[in-house]
Every structure is written in structure tokens, then in C-alpha cells.
Amino acid sequence: MLSQVSIFTENKKGAMLAITNILKEQGINILGSITNDSPEYGIIRMVVSHPQKAVEALSGAGYMCKMTDVLGVELQDKVGELNRLLNALDESNINVNYLYLSFNRDSGSPVMVFHTNDIMEVEDCLETKGFQVLQFLRE
Predict the structure, then answer these.
(1) Stretch 43-70: mean pLDDT
(2) Does residue 97 register a pLDDT over 80?
(3) CA 89 from centre of chain
(4) Average pLDDT score over the chain
(5) What is the pTM of this model?
(6) Is 138 exposed, middle or buried (0-12, 13-18, 19+ CB in 10 A)?
(7) C-alpha distances out from residue 39 to 6, 9, 18, 36, 82, Å
């Protein structure tokens, strides 16, 4: 499983730039990200090269952050692969709360990063079904 950093921030001009500046200054690479917003606030979810260091740096700058376990599943870069993954989850009655795309820097293959309940159980289920669940994403 992977560690994801969730950052809560005001939805205003320059908010993302301020966060990426902090990560850049700390030498932290963003490996995958999704942003969800509302009129006043947003949640930025990221898989980064050094999650604990990112939480410490962002918290020190006044951001409310949280680390969450997520799964990263490497897929082939071809039509229907996300559908194949979602079918496997559906067959096992597993709900996906959210997902976003990253990629394996070594193989160049897409990696679907997603959150679900019972991460450990879902990880075992997917491995049993032949999916490659990543333990980390390399820079």
C-alpha cells in the first residue's frame, strides 16, 4: 500500500502554488495528485516521494494535513484496463471512494491510485486476482 498526503486549503488564487513551493523547497516529488474543491475550501490528495516529510513541512507552514493509506495498482496501458480493475473490485463487492492516475517511473505503466475501506483486505483480494499492487512509487 501507499501513503497519501491530504492537504486542506482555502480555495483561492495561489493556494496550489504555495503548497508546491513548500514541497519543492523540501526536495519532495509529487508522484500523483487529485484536487477536489468547493467554493471556499479544497482537499488536495497526493502521493509524494517522502510523505512524512511532506506532512511535517506543510503542517509547519500552517496547513492541516493527514496521511492516509491508499492502494496503487499497476495496469497495462491499453483500452479497458481500468474497467478490468473496477470489474474485479465490483465482483468482490468493494467500493472505490476516489481514484486518480499516476505511473510507474521504471516501467512507464499507468498506476491507478485509489482509496477504499479495508485497504489490507482489498490488497489481498486484488493480488489473488492477479493484479500488481505497489508498495511505493519511485521518483
Answers:
(1) 96
(2) yes
(3) 18
(4) 93
(5) 0.87
(6) exposed
(7) 18, 11, 19, 10, 30
